[in-house]
Design goal:
The complex is a heterodimer. Chain A is α/β, with parallel strands linked by helices. Chain A is 30% helix and 23% strand. Chain A is globular and about 40 Å long. By secondary structure, chain B is of the alpha+beta class. Chain B folds into 4 domains: 169 residues, Beta-Lactamase (2-Layer Sandwich), CATH 3.30.450; 149 residues, GAF domain (Beta-Lactamase); 167 residues, Heat Shock Protein 90; 122 residues, Response regulator (Rossmann fold), CATH 3.40.50.2300. The longest helix of chain B is centred in the middle third of the chain and has 78 residues. Chain B is elongated, with a radius of gyration of 71 Å. Classes of the chains: A alpha/beta, B alpha+beta. Chains A and B meet through helix 1, helix 2, strand 3, strand 8 and helix 6 of A and helix 1 of B.
Chain lengths: 171, 816
């Protein structure tokens, strides 16, 4: 399913309509699950799903659901949860913080301090705020700015390959 | 040129090079193939490993669409020069990044093919998925590996292998060249030897042996075969020589046999054989001796021309006598071929005699005919032991042929003699037969004449005797007729005298030959003495009588006539004079007609010889024939014929020796008279008629019947006549039935239907005591053929003399 989506999203990039940045980000969100190792105890059991939470307004317009639909990563299904409040973020393994939450960003980030969850956002200054990965658009391409220290502090291990794929810079 | 026709050296070389080339080639090919496979496996492994590494490093770049990052990753391939192209396609199959970075996108496949590793002509293509962990494929990695280096390497290996092979072949050639001689040299030498043998026929060639392997064995066998061949050839040549000699001997034997076969007398046969023996066998001495088994003596019969000198020296010339002692000669005359290889030290006479003449080797071969040895063939040489078994065999065969030829010559001789005897006998028989035929003719003529004159004689005699009233004139005429008839009868009787056989013992009397001769000489004096003297010729008489005088049994008148004839002939044979010799002598001979077993008896020979002209063979042959004469008108041609007849009748032999100019001797050889024999004097009432009898006359001739009847009636007989045989028998039987039987029967012999013999038989059947007289003109012939028929008491000739008839009647009548 992920391949199908990927093909659908990426394959049509040249020939059909180029995928939007949101679509690309949705797929990236899914791919993060493959390059991150969560510390033990993050999952209830072997088959517990990897949960991707979207905090705030969902910018993906369903493409995220498409990206994860039917996919398994390391034997685990991937599910998407849309979250209205910070309180709902418990149990998420990847948390996308929507642009709609820009005002509460500091608050959110402090609330999440110490939580074993990969935080991702488009918001400027996200990484400096203690966020782990920020999407930036460079030359029409979605690029990643990664804060490995934040991830390390949260107990997450990011793949070195993920790190190499990240764009240098501040976010 | 096909391999099988190559010389063996090159063949071996080719085999060696091909074999080592094949082995090396295979080894190199295997090595190269192994290398190639190894290299490919290595390339595969390298590509796979490389691919895995690249793919693993590319996951994040692909996943997060970082093409530049990916390009960096791919740029690491620069270290591996054999990767010419590499590319990464995203999950949708679009080209994402490539290596070298500056290569145009068209250099790469627009889309990835299926996963996996594949080789094409010069490259190794590898497609593999890009995955993060066990998750779904993120993209595809494409690698193109250049195999040119592999091919370069393979080419290099091939080159090295080819070089190695070349070098190895060179080594193999050099080694093979020296090693193959181990095999090719013995074969070549063997081959050369075989060629020398087959082409030059040089059987002394031997192949040198170069080792103890199979070829060594073959060489040995070849040499051994040559040895055997040489032996065979030598043997065959010897055989050929022997055969040649045998053939030449056979040829010689053939020539001798043929030469001998052309000869008929022993002497020339023996000479021919000995000459060939000396020239062609050859021998130094050769002779043939004839053997006398009674005296045990060999007589040298024939000595070869070259042996003559030696024979003279050894006293073995022809007709020399060699006694057969107990040496080889005695064995030889028993039929063995005797070979003395060396007679140098022989103690026997014959071999030592030959040894004195320098002869050393001796062969004596028997000449044998009908299993009897009649001679020996002697062959000798100066060289001791010089007769081979072939020579001996030749001499044995030769002696057999010679013996056969000699025997045949003897047989031929005997045959000639027998033939001569037979010829003479045949001549005699022919002559006798001719005389006999003439005699028969004469008898026939005499018979007819006698029949014709019988009545004349009987009537004339009767008239003169009984008619006392006859005038003087008639009596004179009748006397003249009677004389004339007697003359005719005498002529007729003389004509057949020469053939008339003896008339029984009655006619023969004891005769003193001397007396008869003396009388005849005296009576014939005018002819042999006086008549020639008138011509001036002198015939001297010599007489030579055996003493004491001898007597013979004979008819004096016949002997006298015969002697007279002989003396006349002698006188006629000496017109110019000469010597007439009359001689008697006794000789011991077998009687004429006696068997061969009978002992000879004393016989008396009367010989009359002259020194006159003699007779040529033709005359001698025909002189006994009647009417044959050399005297022209003067001779009757009956003289010697009568002498012959006389001799026949006296069982005497007549011998005539004569040759032209040599005179003639005639001998009559009589059986001597039995000295103590009593001469029976037969009392015959001659001239007087006997007592009257009843007589039956049977004849088919009325004139004869009539004359006989008249004559017999004149003698007071009662005569009944019957005309023909059957009538005669009837008359006799009728008379017998009436009790008036005839006392005597006179019957003719030759009658139609029933002849005299049957008449006589019929009469004797009913009355055995009645005498029968057979009257015939054929009387003499009957006697001669011993055909006096049974039942006949007397045979009388026609014309019947009254005196004879009366005598017979008187004698038979008395007996009856």
């Amino acid at each position: 399913m992920a391949l199908f989506i990927a093909v659908g999203l990426l394959g049509g990039r040249g020939a059909v309509a180029a995928p939007t940045a949101q679509q690309v980000e949705a797929v990236f969100l899914f791919y993060f699950s493959q390059f991150v190792d969560w510390p033990p105890g993050s999952f209830a059991d072997q088959s517990s799903p990897i949960v991707i939470g979207v905090l705030g307004d969902d910018p993906f317009d369903g493409s995220l659901d498409q990206a994860v639909a039917g996919e398994h990563v390391n034997g685990r299904p991937v599910v998407v949860r849309r979250l209205k409040s910070l309180a709902e973020t418990n149990g998420c393994h990847i948390l996308y913080i929507s642009s709609s939450e820009a005002a509460q960003l500091t608050q959110i980030m402090s609330a999440l301090k110490g939580r074993k969850v990969l935080t991702v956002s488009d918001l400027g200054g996200f990484v400096r705020s203690g966020g782990m990965i920020r999407f930036v658009l460079i030359d029409q391409h979605v690029r990643l700015v990664i804060n490995p220290q934040a991830a390390q502090a949260a107990g997450l291990k990011l793949s070195s390959k993920l790190l190499r794929a990240a764009a240098p810079g501040e976010g | 040129m096909p391999l099988r026709n190559l010389p063996i050296r090159r063949k071996l070389m080719v085999m060696l090079l091909v074999t080592s080339g094949a082995v090396l080639g295979l080894t190199c090919a295997a090595f190269i193939a192994y290398q190639y496979q190894g290299y490919r496996a290595a390339a595969r492994h390298t590509v796979e490993t490389l691919g895995e590494v690249i793919a693993s490093n590319s996951t994040a770049a692909v996943a997060f669409d970082n093409a530049s990052d990916e390009t960096d990753v791919l740029a690491a391939l620069h270290a591996e020069g054999r990767v010419t192209l590499a590319a990464v396609y995203d999950s949708s199959g679009a080209l994402f990044a490539h290596y070298p970075a500056n290569a145009p996108a068209t250099a790469f496949p627009p889309h990835p093919a299926s996963d996996g590793l594949r080789f094409d002509a010069a490259t190794l293509i590898y497609y593999l998925p890009i995955r993060q962990g066990g998750n779904d494929r993120l993209g595809t990695l494409y690698l193109r590996w250049n195999l040119a280096s592999l091919h370069r390497e393979i080419d290099l290996y091939t080159l090295i292998a080819a070089g190695m092979m070349l070098f190895a072949m060179l080594i193999a050639y050099v080694l093979g060249r020296s090693l193959q001689q181990q095999i090719s040299r013995p074969i070549q030498t063997l081959g050369r030897a075989a060629v020398a043998v087959s082409e030059k026929r040089d059987y002394s060639v031997r192949a040198p042996k170069l080792g103890n392997d199979e070829l060594g064995v073959l060489t040995d066998a070849f040499n051994h075969m040559l040895d055997q061949l040489t032996a065979d050839i030598t043997e065959r040549q010897a055989f050929g020589t022997r055969l040649q000699r045998q053939l030449s001997r056979l040829d010689l034997l053939h020539r001798i046999t043929r030469g001998v076969g052309e000869r008929q007398d022993l002497g020339s046969i023996f000479q021919f054989v000995i000459r060939h023996l000396e020239d062609d066998v050859p021998v130094d001495f050769g002779c043939i001796c004839l053997y006398d088994p009674h005296e045990e003596i060999l007589t040298v019969t024939s000595v070869g021309p070259r042996s003559r000198e030696t024979a003279l020296e050894l006293a073995l010339t022809e007709s020399a006598r060699v006694p057969v002692d107990r040496n080889g000669l005695s064995r030889c005359v028993r039929g063995e071929l005797v070979y003395e290889p060396d007679i140098g030290g022989s103690e026997f006479q014959f071999p030592s005699t030959l040894a004195k003449g320098g002869l050393r080797a001796l062969v004596v071969a028997p000449l044998r005919a009908e299993s009897r040895v009649f001679g020996v063939l002697v062959a000798a040489r100066r060289e001791p032991q010089s007769f081979s078994s072939g020579d001996c065999e030749f001499l044995r065969q030769l002696s057999e042929h010679v013996a056969l030829a000699a025997h045949q010559a003897q047989l031929y001789d005997a045959l000639q003699h027998a033939y001569e005897d037979l010829r003479q006998s045949q001549e005699t028989v022919v002559q006798q037969e001719r005389l006999r035929a003439l005699g028969q003719m004469a008898s026939g003529v005499a018979h007819d004449i006698n029949n014709a004159i019988s009545p004349i004689a009987l009537y004339t005699e009767s008239l003169l005797e009984r008619e006392a009233t006859l005038s003087e004139r008639a009596r004179s005429y009748l006397t003249t007729i009677q004389t004339a008839i007697h003359d005719v009868a005498r002529t007729v009787s003389r004509m057949r005298e020469f053939y008339r056989p003896q008339e029984g013992h009655a006619a023969l009397a004891k005769i003193e030959l001397d007396r008869v001769i003396g009388g005849v000489l005296e009576l014939t004096q005018a002819r042999w003495r006086d008549l020639p003297q008138e011509r001036g010729a002198v015939i001297e008489l010599r007489t030579d009588f055996v003493r004491p005088p001898v007597a013979i049994m004979g008819a004096e008148n016949e002997i006298r006539d015969a002697l007279t004839n002989l003396i006349f002939n002698a006188a006629d044979a000496m017109p110019d004079g000469g010597t007439l010799t009359v001689r008697t002598k006794t000789v011991m001979r077998q009687l004429k007609g006696a068997g061969a077993d009978e002992a000879p008896v004393e016989m008396v020979c009367l010989e009359v010889s002259d020194t006159g002209v003699g007779m040529d063979p033709e005359t001698r042959r025909r002189c006994l024939e009647p009417f044959f004469t050399t005297k022209g008108e003067r001779g009757t041609g009956m003289g010697l014929a009568m002498v012959y007849g006389m001799a026949q009748r006296h069982r005497a032999e007549l011998e005539i020796d004569s040759a032209p100019g040599e005179g003639t001797t005639v001998r009559v050889v009589f059986p001597a008279a039995p000295t103590a024999a009593e001469e029976t004097v037969r009392q015959i009432a001659l001239g007087l008629p006997g007592r009257p009898m009843r007589i039956l006359i049977v004849d088919d001739d009325p004139i004869i019947i009539e004359s006989l009847r008249e004559t017999l009636r004149g003698d007071a007989h009662r005569v009944t006549a019957a005309e023909g045989g059957q009538a005669g028998i009837g008359a006799f039987e009728a008379a017998l039935a009436k009790g008036e039987a005839f006392e005597l029967v006179i019957t003719d012999l030759g009658m139609p239907h029933v002849d005299g013999r049957r008449v006589a038989a019929a009469i004797k059947a009913v009355s055995p005591d009645t005498p029968v007289i057979l009257l015939t003109g054929w009387g003499q012939r009957l006697m001669a053929d011993n055909q006096v028929p049974p039942h006949v008491d007397r045979v009388l000739n026609k014309p019947p003399r009254l005196k004879e008839l009366r005598a017979a009647l008187a004698e038979l009548g008395r007996q009856a």
